[in-house]
Amino acid sequence: MVTVAFVLDLSNGWLGGVNYYRNLLTAISRYESDSIRVKVFLPKGQNIDAFRDLSKDIEFVSLSFPARWTLPWFVRKLWMKFLHEDRFLARHLRHHGIDVLSHAPDSVRCPGVKSIAWIPDFQHKYLPDFFSNEELSRRDAGFERMAVCMDKVILSSETAQADFITYYPLYKEKACVLRFAPVLDFGLRNQTHEIAKKYGTEGKFFFLPNQYWKHKNHKIVLQALRILKEEGKFVRVVSTGNTSDYRAPGHFAALEAFVKEYELGDRYLILGMIPYADVQALAEMSLGYINPSFFEGWSTTVEEAKYRGKPILLSDLKVHREQAPVKGVFFDPNNAEDLAKKMWDLWQQPPTNEDVDVLKRANEEALQKFARDYCAIVQSF
Predict the structure, then answer these.
(1) pLDDT for 45
(2) What distance, in Å, lies between the first and last C-alpha atoms of the chain?
């Protein structure tokens, strides 16, 4: 049996990352617990609420990292900067019998432990204007260190793998594709009435569960709603997700101002961050999803739509084509009229109810494959 470590920091507000690790750890726990033993290391003081239901199968370890500005902190930073090694973390991993460090957090080696990096996407290469020069340099340097120092590098799609090989051709043998699958709760179908009352979402709506980062392109949805309003057509969208974008602090306020200026408040409902169980219930209630993003590594929204049997309006990206949702309708993410037309076409169609047992089985098969593919990567050393 291989003992695998994850070192997670849940304090950065990246909900997509939390959901990704929940999905992966759940898949391993359900289907590969006889092959992989998992230990999750968290900085001291962080709680495990997001993973508490997995605590029977996965060991959680509280780790005290050296306090900032102390001598051990400086020594660790120097080792990491100049030798690309984290001897502090390596010592703790070896003490706990770790064979493989998965999704290594700092793109540096841990001597005595095999290390796997994860690069979700190369967004900064395609959308450099969404990043500061400092962040562009940091990402380039970090990704290059991953290519050089890590034993393997996980990419979330074949699209991302092709990018990796383009940028780091000398290390193409390290690239591994691991397409993730979502853990869905189909039992929430029975709670839709209570959720509708809680959030005021009675009636028909499209669901947009993306964080309010600028590249997620919420603006095109608002522009499409404005066009539909001017044409006398009523369509409603319900949105959830973190409203903060550290790279563009005024972004969400600008979207709110657009909603107010064109009086779209009855057509665009912003719920912000809500419990994930409620997000899943809203998805069940919806007519279908929208993902207007300018860039994705492997979209959770698209995967959820696929395994819920829901239609999805999605931006015409290479990776979205790779995900191949059966009920997907692609649109130009720069063309609000294109989106408005396709929203209205789908709005007028009667809802379809897929057999829940068929959907459950497809979701379980996808999770099994996710776990099996991951197991093959960590056992390949």
Answers:
(1) 78
(2) 13
Which residue(s) pair with 239 in the sheet? 208, 270
Range of the domain at 41: 2-178+365-380
The H helix count followed by the E strand count for the chain is 14, 13
Query: Are both 25 and 105 inside the same structural domain?
Result: yes
| 149 and 8 inside one domain | yes
Which class for 172: exposed (0-12), middle (13-18), buried (19 or more C-beta within 10 A)?
middle
For residue 303, give the nearest of 320, 315, 278, 281 by alpha carbon. Answer: 320
At a CB cut-off of 8 Å and minimum separation 6, what does 82 contact? none
Query: Is 316 found in the same domain as 254?
Result: yes
- 118-127 pLDDT per residue, tens: 999 999 999 9
For the segment 144-194, what is each residue's pLDDT rounded down to a tens digit?
Answer: 999 999 999 999 999 999 999 999 999 999 999 999 999 999 887 777 889
Give a yes or no: residue 358 inside a domain: no
Q: In what order do the strands lie in the sheet with 59-63?
A: 59-63, 36-43, 2-7, 100-102, 114-119, 152-155, 175-177
For residues 18 and 79, membership in a common domain is answered with: yes
Dihedral angle sign, alpha carbons of residues 38, 364, 377, 143: negative
Render pLDDT for 86-136 as a digit per residue (tens, 0 to 9).
999 999 999 999 999 999 988 889 999 999 999 999 999 999 999 999 999
Do 153 and 103 contact (CB within 8 A), yes or no? no
184 within a domain of the structure (yes/no): no
- Residue closest to 181 by CA, chosen among 378, 380, 31: 31
Same domain flag for 14 and 147: yes
How many whole angstroms separate alpha carbon 313 and alpha carbon 293? Answer: 11
On whether both 167 and 222 belong to a single domain, the answer is no
Q: What residues contact residue 355 under an 8 Å CB cut-off, 6+ apart? A: none
User: Residues 74, 214: one domain?
Assistant: no
**How many structural domains are present in the chain?**
2
